[in-house]
Amino acid sequence: MVKARHIDITGLCFRIGSFVMEDVTFSVHRGEYFVLTGPNGSGKSLLMKLICGLQQPLSGSIRVNDHLLDDMPPWKRHIGYVPQDGVLFPNRTV
Fold this sequence. Notes:
By secondary structure, the chain is an alpha+beta fold. The protein has helices at residues 44-52, 74-77; strands at residues 5-16, 19-29, 59-64, 67-68.
């Protein structure tokens, strides 16, 4: 039995300064655990920002539950992202 894809990333490319992320392709199937590891500066956080819509890829596609997210604004994606520092609005106080 083939499991349904939950997250499908195909040919994702992004450039910021001298850093280039090129042709990132992977799928996460429903019920699977997925761990993203790598050294500092390898693009882990950037990949999460691309999936959440906080950055726009140069090319490639992002699908979640078979919905294409490429032109969907971040607030309609219903995907959360909390960076390690935890500072979402540094100019605000509690």
